[in-house]
Amino acid sequence: MHRREALKNVAFLLGGAISASTMGVLFESFTLPENEKNFVSYSLQDEKIFAEFADVIVPTTKSSAGAKAAGLGKFIPMMMQDCYPAKMQESFAQGFKDLQAKSEKDFSKKYLELTPAERTKLMIDLRAISLAQKETKSEENKDLVYFFTTARDLTLLGYYSSEIGCTKAREYVLVPGRYDGNTKLKPGQKSWAT
Amino acid sequence: MNLNINLKEENTYDAIVIGSGISGGWAAKELTEKGLRVIMLERGMNIEHITGYETAMKSPWEFKHAGKLTEEQKRTHPVQKRDYPYQEANEKWWVNDLECPYTEDKRFDWYRGFHVGGKSLMWGRQSYRFSDHNFEDNAKDGHGTDWPIRYAELSPWYDYAERFAGISGSKENWPLCPDGQFLPPMDLNVVEKSVKARIEEHYKKERIMMIGRTANLTVPHKGRGNCQYRNLCSRGCPFGAYFSTQSSTLPAAMATKRLTVRPYSIVNHIIYDKDTKKAKGVMVIDAETNKEMEFYAKIVFVNGSTLGSTFVLLNSTSEAHPNGLGNGSGQLGHNLMDHHFRCGASGEAEGFDDKYTYGRRANGIYVPRYQNVNNDKREYLRGFGYQGGASRSNWQNDVAELSFGAGLKEKMTKPGKWTMGLGGFGEMLPYYENRVYIDKTKKDKWGQPVLAIDCEYKENEKKMRVDMMNDAAEMLEAAGMKNVKTYDNGCYPGMAIHEQGTARMGNDPKTSVLNKWNQMHEVKNVFVTDGSCMPSIACQNPSLTFMALTARACDYAVKELKKNNI
Known about the structure:
Low-confidence stretches of chain A: 1-36
Largest interface: A-B, 67 and 62 residues
Number of strands of chain B: 19
Organism (chain A): Pedobacter paludis
Largest sheet of chain B: 7 strands, mixed
Distance between the termini of chain B: 29 Å
Pfam family, one (chain A): Gluconate_2-dh3
Largest sheet of chain A: none
Low-confidence stretches of chain B: none
Oligomer: heterodimer
InterPro entries (chain A): Gluconate_2DH_su3
Mean pLDDT of chain B: 96
Order of helices and strands of chain B: HEHEHEHHEEHEHEEEEHEEEEHEEEHEEH
Structural class of chain B: alpha/beta
Protein name (chain A): Twin-arginine translocation pathway signal protein
Keywords (chain B): FAD, Flavoprotein, Oxidoreductase
């Protein structure tokens, strides 16, 4: 729905209690959003790519399952759609396409067909490109870099607030019941999730 | 005709309390306990104690957006989103800014919660008394108007408020931050203990550091459970372990069976009776139906938050009070203040790698004001205190930039560095030109005009901020912290959510709105006991003072009522 129509509908929902003149003022009072709502959406296939991509950033280790198991395949595109302005969504979507193109170019394979070693190699490249771009500030690879850094951030955010991340990778107590500001750190002790 | 009379009788109480936050809840409790039939009018929704705290027991993974705001929330909350308090876990408790806009002549971040309990549900809970210095500063340096009371007059009411609310803290015998009736203090952690000892030694006890005095219970108190160290207070506490209207004053008032609470009741104005020269009641807009109605009472307590209350008073115009109720002085709306903060220093503590913590303490440390007393003279007036604390983070700074994989994961699941931070909270002087007024060019969702805010920090505050950074850094260095860094993240009035002033107390009706009993000089049955009454704001967190002033004003009001003086 177009933004203005959405706003109008909200106002009508407020009911007949509001006079015509108030309605006019109501609209003046609204701060209109800077960007139109974006409609970049992601398919189930895309979610599989996100899951595998995130799993390279936070893989399964001896202590705990990784990002794929923690549901990052769905979390990343959901967060993009709900929490990011349109311009950033567009850049992210373009970077996501660039990632898949890079997979085809470097390995002649679709991303999901890459071996674990190839996925890691691709991620090493992305990191190098991103670190280089930070220095040069060049327009080249701009979207790819935005995609990598943002997908990485969202992976860490999503993983360490997931149940696996909080309770398996880290340690979580819902109701501590007391405070001790001077405990002895045991060998191998995990950090608190919150 | 009969119908009208019945309605009038039905809508008549002994007292009306406008607002249900910290001071409104106290007014309702005190007035009902003293035998009055009270209606408490709240402009927003009801929130039931415990069952209304929908997210209180949720774990991090039960939040869809991992705590982040959505674009839609940012669109509907353009002011609330400016700082951290508006968050996924309690986002329903912050106002939709589009429904109740205001005008910013200069940037002012106005955080509002429209619901039973008001900001008592989301407050920071730090609770400090004002000292004689604070009550005397206006008279000494000539800024603002003299406080009509001194510490000795409020001290027993602080005792009274603390005993009921339950304030945990340590006695320090520090004249600028008087001791009170405390529950046992929370513990400092191992790094804070070391920092405290080294600061107090270095400055020869001319500066001290203590555990924060907080309205969190360290032991069960008056039927409420003690703190469970979850540090999720701003979602509402199912244990009732921090002071809020819901956990504390509302149950006490309800127990008298003399309290009526009416949510969705926006007080538009106070109705003035020119014959009796008193308020006879209030006009209310029902927030759900937009229907107008009136309530009547012998006394009116105005507790709608600093700017909410001042809006109601400014909007209560009549022939006798053309510029707002009780505004013969012309001071109503003026002298708006807020603390300035968001600057200080932090550093890393070494030598504690084998130490960690258990539990999430909903409290930090406090360094009470030490400037501009004794030999400590500064280039500005008044002073500041520090809040902060030490913690062991779980984020490794030494993780290589943009790294990934098993190595990153391994590091992120281990405890990181100990850090210690000190953030200043500075006093802002009262300036007549920092003001609010009614802007009739805009309307809110209910057709009411809106408030315009014109407020800024000035030279005194700017000078103080430099010291707030540098003193913090000096103290952290004296305490042996490494890699000490100062910061000033910038601050606008409103951000501390300690907005005060705009209906100040004073002895002279020509220069103040309220007398020493928080009673309007010009309308004797109207009392204003929230932050708007403050002639100055000191640097301490203010809510405890609102509690004490409210209880004191209620005591006076009921006595006057019984003597037929009002």
